[in-house]
Amino acid sequence: MYKKNFEIRWSDIDANRHLANTAYINFMSHTRMGFLMENGFGQKEMAQHNLGPVVFYEHVYYFKEVFPGKPVTVTLKLKGLSEDGMYFEFVHDFYDHKGRNFASCEMMGGWIDLKERKLTGLPEALFQNLNHLDHTEDFKVLTKEDTRKFNKKPRDIDPML
């Protein structure tokens, strides 16, 4: 399982003096990017393939408060991957210094061709690098339909309001 350890900084605390929701997002992002950079998805490789990651959603579940003073650990597992690598789903779990799970997040994303500005599959070598990440017990092969399972669509505002 891929993991990163973090110290909770003053800037990670909210008005309730516990870990702020923005810190959860930042810790997850840092963990994902650490894994990706260590597995062939560095800036050089991404530029060679005109690739960039995009996040479709992040659903965070908070179980218990966490406060500064002790380190926290964030893990990363692969919950889903499409056959061409275009779509991926990760699970992040957050643990306190005693190994107690205090939050979890399911996030889904994809890969965009930065020239065409369209979603694209991964080259085979990058696909294999991503697919070797530990899988969750409920891992599945993703399809386009999985990216729309919450049936959310944009709703524009009336400019006359």
TrEMBL record:
Pfam families: 4HBT_2. The keyword Hydrolase applies. This is Thioesterase. Belongs to the 4-hydroxybenzoyl-CoA thioesterase family. Keywords: Hydrolase. InterPro entries: 4-hydroxybenzoyl-CoA_TE (IPR050563), HotDog_dom_sf (IPR029069). It comes from Salinimicrobium oceani. The keyword Iron does not apply. It comes from the Bacteria.
